[in-house]
Write a structure and sequence with these properties.
There is one protein chain. It contains 11 helices and 35 strands. It is of the alpha+beta class. The strands form 10 sheets. Strands 18, 19, 20, 21 and 22 form a 5-stranded antiparallel sheet that branches. A 4-stranded antiparallel sheet has the order 1-25-24-23, with no helix packed on it. The protein has a 4-stranded antiparallel sheet with strand order 2-3-6-7, with no helix packed on it.
């Protein structure tokens, strides 16, 4: 992939070509501006020993970034920002550094740099796509992948191989030309061979050696094939050529074009360029719609939103083409959108401008009512930290092909086959981890359940009240709570001493934790030797309890300073207190004077217990 997409990033480099150049960088700059990144990187690295200027470090980072060598890109972008004022560096490098960090799996740092990019470039869709809080990396790493990938080692070489699609019982794909002692033509982008089209029969009992399609191949690049529904028309990408020589634009760059060939008499003939090609910009990566009525492609033509956008034209019945139209901002971003493929229900493409795992990720845009919907990341294992592209699927047999430069491959870019395992996988809805927490509140002395107890549940992390409830006759309570959280639970009831307990829910999917509270009676109450609950009231004077309607003390009674004590009111208050208890209780009255006469309050308590009491309902 890195051999064929380089033309599409050219316009990003033009703005910085002159700034910072000097005699010492002249040779390296020449290689760089001719897209010879491998050679340019060697020279810039020598210069970087003494020159930490923005010009040298930016271009050195770019040499690795555009060759998808993210470890090198991270190294030199890090030095770029360490050695220079961040405000003096173009915001685009914040995004590139962030993407390079994703490419080495450092997502935490990547998010920080892309967030900073988003704050500086608020209108850039890439920033909002990557900082959208509704998306997370965990969403892209499913526990039960629906795809099974396999490296096609019999196809792949130590060079670059990509873009496989079905072809005459096998596959057709692009592969870098092998080098011989006589012919050493290499592409300066990364010092590797140019790409040719090859066919291989993969359905035979033994896979045959790949065969070069000599009728279509030239000395330079050919790749990215798509066929009409009947298989008789092929569209493919080639370098712009004039005869056998490459044709360059005004900047000295050889762009890409789409060509068409027809299958006649068992061979490909009538190879012609499409009319919307140009010498001044690139057009490539053709993809025919499932009904054969539209041709989608990638270009950096004027009016492109980002580095490369996806466009389309109508294929007319007379084999002419309609006007070029863009897919718009729902698909295209300020980054790279590339390698489109369509079936009858969706558009698939690769992008580094939508939220992904790193580099180019594969996305799916379902077609509803003739409109492409918001792109959906195809997740792992289709996508990885590296570039993943050239996706093809046959829904009838639930299998297809994918290209990637991920770790563990045979060469630079490898072709992978995949099977879609929907029928073999049972989707299990992952439920959030919850735990059942239950408890009961009882009377401390008798062990019986207490009703009307207020239970407060507090999350200790922020001291927030999660729940408040009142117990019923059973005295029980329960909660269903998230795992791995710390809580404080309080129990309180009028006339009882409060109680509390702390606990932490574990990571288990289910756990029953019992919280029992034994509430003891407050000091204003007491139990006698017959376990009768007493409310204690002391009064001064002697009263006639046989006539409770009398509301004034008897003449011989003494008065308490500040006013008379109304025994009827006291009894009514005691009765109201008794209503809050779930069991019978008795009221014991102590006369101050009689207590002195009898010598102890215990004697009076006994003598009064049968004649003056207030009982609460059972």
């Amino acid at each position: 992939m890195k051999k064929i997409v380089h033309i599409f990033v050219l316009f990003l480099l033009i703005a910085g070509q002159v700034f910072g150049q000097n005699k010492s960088t002249k040779k390296a700059d020449k290689y760089y501006e001719n897209l010879a990144y491998s050679e340019a990187a060697k020279l810039y690295e020598n210069l970087a020993v003494k020159d930490s200027s923005i010009h040298v470090l930016q271009r050195l980072g770019n040499c690795y970034y555009f060759n998808s060598s993210m470890k090198g890109a991270v190294k030199w972008y890090e030095k770029l920002f360490a050695a220079n004022d961040k405000d003096s560096i173009a915001p685009e490098y914040l995004f590139r550094y962030g993407q390079a960090l994703r490419g080495v799996g450092n997502y935490k740092e990547s998010d920080r740099w892309i967030k900073e990019f988003s704050e500086k470039q608020k209108e850039d869709a890439r920033g909002s796509n990557f900082t959208n809080t509704e998306q997370s990396l965990n969403d892209l790493l499913p526990k039960y992948p629906l795809f099974k990938l396999e490296n096609m080692k019999s196809v792949n070489t130590e060079r670059s191989d990509f873009g496989a699609v079905p072809y005459q019982g096998g596959i057709i794909f692009a592969s870098a030309k092998p080098q011989s002692n006589l012919v050493k033509r290499r592409h300066s982008w990364n010092n590797s061979g140019f790409m040719d089209l090859y066919a291989m029969n993969t359905t035979a009992s033994e896979e045959t050696a790949k065969e070069s399609l000599e009728k279509l191949n030239s000395k330079y690049h050919e790749s990215s094939v798509s066929f009409s529904p009947d298989g008789k028309t092929m569209y493919f990408t080639r370098n712009n050529m004039d005869g056998k020589k490459r044709k360059k634009d005004q900047k000295g760059i050889t762009n890409l074009k789409i060509l068409k060939a027809e299958w006649i008499d068992d061979q490909w003939q009538n190879v012609v360029e499409l009319p919307f090609n140009s010498d001044e910009y690139s057009v490539g990566h053709p993809a025919v719609s499932a009904d054969g009525k539209k041709l989608y492609f990638v270009s950096d033509m004027p009016g492109t939103i980002g580095q490369t956008d996806i466009f389309f034209v109508a294929i007319n019945y007379d084999q002419t083409y309609g006007p070029v139209q863009t897919l718009g901002t729902n698909i295209n971003t300020e980054g790279r959108e590339m390698f489109p493929f369509l079936d009858d229900s969706a558009l698939y493409f690769s992008s580094d401008g939508h939220f992904g795992l790193g580099g180019l990720d594969v996305f799916k845009s379902p077609i509803e009512n003739g409109e492409f919907q918001s792109p959906i990341n195809m997740k792992s294992p289709v996508n990885s930290e590296s570039d993943d592209f050239a996706y093809y699927v046959d829904k009838e047999i639930m299998s297809g092909y994918l290209s990637s430069n991920r770790e563990g491959g045979v060469g630079d870019d490898d072709i992978y086959s995949f099977t879609y395992e929907l029928e073999d996988v049972i989707e299990v809805e992952e439920k959030p981890c919850k735990q059942e927490i239950s408890g009961i509140v009882v009377d401390k002395k008798f062990g019986v359940p207490l009703r009307n107890v207020k239970i407060e549940l507090i999350k200790t992390a922020d001291n927030s009240l999660v729940s408040e409830l009142i117990t019923g006759v059973s005295g029980k309570f329960s909660y269903l709570l998230p795992c791995n959280e710390q809580y404080l639970v309080k129990a309180s009831k009028e006339y009882y001493k409060p109680d509390s307990n702390t606990f932490k829910t574990t990571a288990a999917m289910s756990l029953e934790l019992d919280l029992d509270f034994d509430l003891g009676i407050i000091d204003a109450f007491a139990y006698n030797d017959r376990d009768e609950l007493m409310i204690r009231i002391e009064i001064e004077g002697t009263y006639d309890f046989a006539h409770p309607c009398i509301r004034q003390p008897l003449p011989r009674g003494t008065q308490k300073s500040g006013g008379d004590l109304d025994i009827v009111d006291e009894l009514e208050e005691a009765k109201e207190l008794a209503q809050d208890f779930e069991r019978a209780l008795k009221l014991f009255i102590f006369s101050y004077e009689e207590t002195k006469k009898r010598g102890s309050r215990g004697e009076v308590r006994a003598s009064r217990s049968s004649s003056t009491s207030v009982a609460a309902p059972e």
